[in-house]
Specification:
flavoprotein; 18 strands; FAD-bd_PCMH-like_sf; 17 helices; 488 residues; FAD-linked_Oxidoreductase; alpha+beta; 22% strand
Length: 488
């Protein structure tokens, strides 16, 4: 990590030297910066996960792109490490490389506009929930993630998976234009026709090359007038094998169908719970046919109709709102699987039960599998964008070790890592190499697991890094190497 220099007061002179404040920032930017002594600092700098997390000594909140550009230039020239925050949901342990850095708050860039051509321009401060309220009101839709509090920009930089990906592709597949700032504050645009090399890299590896200001997405007419059938099913854990068999029998998933299989614990009794959230972007009668495959052996089945704009906050009984609470330790691992290996999944559940019983302070921990359609993703060629996993993301296993008391950290982490590694083996994952959607990465994976193993990908990404981030200032999150020899 770059050292943070001690900056002294510089007095303006007739020659035009820039006046700096006691914090070291130029006077025209100093009013946009708060430090730990400010009562708003804790709220502004709060992140979803406090596990192996970055720390900050200042928060910089630009109000427009000129202030952002000037701030980037100042921080880079003075060796100040920084991170941007929209949703603040990133949890990779790579982020802890930033200590006592500057958090760039994008709260003033929280906007979503549906344009006359029915594209949507989204500011870097908008969350998924912000986006769907505006896009949904215009009777349009686009792929967004399931969690409402995740930053929409940060998510697509790694690809952008979501329930509608079977119909519309990844969130990044719908990107049509990006306005962004480079390391020195230079503002540029990227698209298929302008800076197209960078445009390729921004969609799947975009955290590495610059700072996004706003993004323009294609949107689509709402499916079924924006109405989604939801079935929230609860099972006895003894039915886990049957649930897995049923999910596997539906692969490849109907592009309108989305399944999330969740294993968690009752916080009071510590009993292991099994839930399945089923969402169908189509008529209720069609969705119910899928639900019937599970409901005849479930303990309960709660059916609702939710609009596109309601899904992020109301699906799964509002479960995602609880998971948006900031400040807890969130130690996460992820892996992609061709099918769900029933034997391994059941053994994982057994060991989860043992883990929680032995460590009750881990009772908020859970693991889940997202199973979404892949048709629109796989219809695009491997070279379409920097996203490397087309044809290899049938199921995402996400392991969430959640706690507040560090006395259980080692036990929880050991369990999470063990099962990520188990499911990464070709015999269990169904893929010949480790496949990790980088937004679900822990930070200890080989870079080839995140960005693909093809030499041409490494060469293209490293060339972009050398061209657009020659000083390596955008290297706190799954950093693309400056040298080909450093790929793993």
């Amino acid at each position: 990590m770059r050292a943070v220099p001690v900056l002294s007061v510089v007095v303006a002179t007739a020659s035009g030297a820039v006046l700096k404040t006691r914090t070291g920032w130029p006077s025209d930017l100093a009013g946009l910066v708060v430090d730990r002594s400010d009562p708003t600092f804790s709220t502004l700098s709060a992140r979803w996960s406090s596990y192996d997390a970055p720390t900050f000594s200042q928060v910089f909140a630009p109000a427009n792109e000129d202030e952002l550009a000037a701030g980037l230039n100042y921080m880079t020239c003075n060796g100040l490490p920084f991170l941007a925050k929209s949703g603040g949901h990133g949890y990779s342990v790579d982020l802890q490389v930033v200590q006592n850095g500057v958090l760039i708050s994008m709260e003033n860039f929280n906007y979503t506009v549906v344009n006359s051509d029915l594209t949507a321009t989204v500011g870097a401060g908008a969350t998924f929930n912000d986006v769907v309220q505006v896009v949904g009101a215009a009777k349009r839709e686009m792929t967004v993630g399931s969690c409402p509090c995740v930053g929409a920009t940060g998510a697509y930089l790694g690809g952008g998976v979501g329930r509608l990906q079977g119909m519309h592709g990844l969130a990044s597949d719908g990107v049509r234009k990006i306005r962004m700032a480079l390391w020195n504050g230079t503002i540029i645009e990227t698209s298929d026709s302008v800076n197209s090399d960078l445009f390729w890299g921004m969609r799947g590896a975009g955290q590495n090359f610059g700072f996004v200001i706003e993004t323009t997405f294609e949107t689509y007419p709402q499916t079924n007038d924006g109405n989604n059938y939801e079935s929230q099913l609860v099972f006895n854990i003894s039915q886990l094998g049957t649930v897995v068999d049923t999910v596997n029998s539906l692969l490849p998933l109907d592009p309108k169908l989305a399944l999330v299989t969740i294993v968690g614990a009752d916080s009071t009794t510590l009993e292991t719970l099994l839930l399945l959230n089923l969402v169908y972007a189509g008529p209720e009668n069609e969705g119910r046919e899928y639900s019937k495959l599970f409901s005849n052996y479930s303990l309960s089945n709660t059916e609702t109709i939710l609009t596109y704009a309601e899904l992020p906050t109301k699906s799964a009984g509002g479960f995602n709102n609880v998971k948006c609470i900031k400040g807890h330790r969130q130690d996460q691992y992820g892996i992609s699987m061709k099918t769900i290996d029933k034997g391994a999944f059941m053994q994982m559940a057994n060991e989860y039960t043992e883990l929680i019983q032995a460590n009750p302070l881990l009772n908020a921990s859970a693991f889940l599998v997202e199973t979404f359609g892949v048709q629109a993703i796989d219809a695009l060629g491997d070279e379409y964008s920097a996203f490397p996993h087309r044809g290899r993301i049938n199921n995402f296993l996400e392991i969430n070790v959640s706690f507040d008391d560090d006395s259980v950290a080692a036990a929880g982490d050991a369990w999470g890592k063990k099962w990520r590694d188990n499911f990464a083996t070709p015999e269990i994952s169904g893929y010949d190499s480790m496949v990790v959607y980088q937004n679900y990465g822990h930070g200890d994976e080989a870079l080839s697991a995140l960005y693909g193993a093809d030499d041409w990908r490494h060469e293209r990404l490293t060339a972009l890094k050398q061209s657009y981030d020659p000083r390596g200032v955008f290297s706190a999150y799954h950093a693309v190497p400056q040298s080909l020899e450093d790929w793993s």
